[in-house]
């Protein structure tokens, strides 16, 4: 392991929950940002496809 010496500074019982907790928080924030800033993502989660639901107009 490249960063194996980190556990001499931080106990694994503290470091691992912090690492996994921070990854979880980041994932939740990204999902919230996508859900609140797009119109197609909530439809996708509800089982609808954006290509069928809306027509694309060019011009």
Keyword list:
59 residues; mainly alpha; 3 helices; cell membrane; chlorophyll; light-harvesting polypeptide; Antenna complex, alpha/beta subunit; bacteriochlorophyll binding
How would you state the average pLDDT, rounded?
Answer: 81
Characterize the biggest β-sheet.
Answer: none
How many H/I helices? Answer: 3
Tell me the series of helices and strands, N- to C-terminal.
HHH
Query: How many beta-strand runs?
Result: 0
β-strand amount: under 5%
The end-to-end distance, rounded to whole angstroms, is 55 Å
User: Uncertain segments of ≥5 residues (pLDDT<50)?
Assistant: none
Specify Rg, calculated over alpha carbons.
20 Å
Helical content stands at 55-70%
Shape, please? Answer: rod-shaped
Class of secondary structure makeup: mainly alpha
Can you describe this structure in just a few lines?
This protein has 59 residues and is an all-alpha fold. The chain has helices spanning 12-37, 40-45, 50-53.
